[in-house]
Amino acid sequence: MEEFQLEPGAMLFPAAFFTPTATEILQFELGRIKYTFPISAAMFKSCHKSLVPFCPPRLTVECLDPVHWARVPNETLRTTSLKLSDIRGWSVLCDDPVRIMAVYVPEKDESFDILEMIEKPVYLDFHRQTLNLYCKLASHGNLKVAHVLCGHVDEDQIMYAVKSHYLSGPMRQGYHDLLIAIHLQSHASARQSMSKEYVIPLCDQLRNENVFDPDTETRFPQIMGDTYSMLPVMVAEPVKSHFTREEEMKLLPPAINFDALKAHVMAAMEKEMKLLPPAINFDALKAHVMAAMESATRHAVMNCRDLIGGLIDDTELEAILKLIHPVAFDPNYEPGTTNKGLTEVELSENVKIQLVNIIDHLCDIQLRHRIESLIGFSETFVAELQQDQCKRYMEIKQTDMPPAEAAKKTKEFRCPPKEQMFRLLKCKVKEEETDLLDDDVEYDQCPMAENLQEQLRDMVINMLREWALGDFIENNELIRKIDMVINMLREWALGDFIENNELIRKMFHLLLRQYSGVREVIFFQPLIMAIKILF
Fold first, then answer.
1. Where is the Ryanodine receptor junctional solenoid domain (predicted)?
2. Are 381 and 212 in contact (CB under 8 A)?
3. 3-state helix, strand and coil shares in percent for the chain, rounded to the nearest 5
4. Predicted model pTM
5. Which H/E stretch holds residue 463?
6. What number of other Cβ atoms are within 10 A of residue 363's Cβ?
7. How far is Cα 396 from Cα 414, in angstroms, rounded to an integer?
8. How far is CA 379 from CA 230, 322, 363, 376, in A?
9. What is the three-class DSSP state of 437?
10. CA-CA distance, 296 to 354, in Å (whole number)?
11. What is the pLDDT of residues 78-114, one digit of tens each?
């Protein structure tokens, strides 16, 4: 027997819960125990003298009826009803039907809305593991399996799950992972493998690109415009359901023409090697990603979507920069408003990782533009430099001078190319008062033409201004853009304790990139390949 301690003056109301064995009749037996009063004597004052318990008419019984609930749709149907006539009846027209995504359970022969799966943890865990299995099967560029899986999870299902705001967390993560594994992973791996390689064709448009020119500076970083480097292009093909290697799954007889089999297998493998990822509406997906990111920033929602690489144009880049830091990049920003960017709101660590990845990707685009500008300048400058060398060499050949002096003048052209470039690039600014020996004057004198020297100096000055080095630190618009990233990382580091080690590594890597613009260009010089296009 259990004992309970009650407060003084507490009133108890005894109750009994039971499940009836019959639906037609319910019998109450208020019996009595020896040496005790009946239950009715304690409950009903009018019956306390009765030795035979009975049910008075005032007794009421509460019955709990079982109720089955179902999810109400978030959007109701907008219908239009019209009575045609008394004979023909009514006409109901639905302008915009509401779509749902149902899950069918064959064991119970029932189906329910996928939004209700959060109430069914067993089914939720099963479907999450199934989506994980699909992702593993389609990994490492297994495009044949990706096409087959599109027959199980088509584009409509993926887009519905991605756009749904009320889907449970595990299912949302599973569908996003499946979308990346089937449709985007191959292209993302190709882009990532060539993100640090620079194969630049020497075209006419490249000569006109110069991100170091102060006249081209705007409030945005130098990441706008097309890049001329050779990068993988996102391609896809319609979903396939039949493949040529199905015949290989059949048993072969002992005697067979192995040459024909080899030719068949090689032909089938060649076709599979040319297989492209399954197609999806990338424009609609990109529009949803941009809208979701803007909505998450405006409402400070702690969920951030990855961007679709290779499909973002200048308009989306400007929108992303305005969402990151509207004070610096939004021309319509008004001080004192509540409009804040991603660098000014509190974010979870997972969102911070995605934001650092986005800014790091923007730095990669900026680095690619800088390298392409250097290659474009170098092509024009080296061509003019060679013409100047040829002109000076012909002047020396056509001038009558002693052999010793001619040998001294032509020493430049008899040196290896590396020493020639070192001598040509060793041009200094002329000082008004010089007190040097003849040998020093000869060593310091640069044979390059004055216009080429001035062109090279201007290029170097513009590069230093772009990287905010030396005397160009003050009064530079780039400092505002660099300080935006530095201040954001400083606030994160001085704020709450960071538990994610990956976030710490990415933060330090991004911080280092803000101070190592020259080092990056020098480091990636061995990976630059310029090719000449012949028509």
1. 127-271, 310-434
2. no
3. 50, 5, 45
4. 0.62
5. helix 450-467
6. 19
7. 14
8. 18, 35, 24, 5
9. coil
10. 13
11. 888 888 888 888 888 887 788 888 888 888 888 888 8
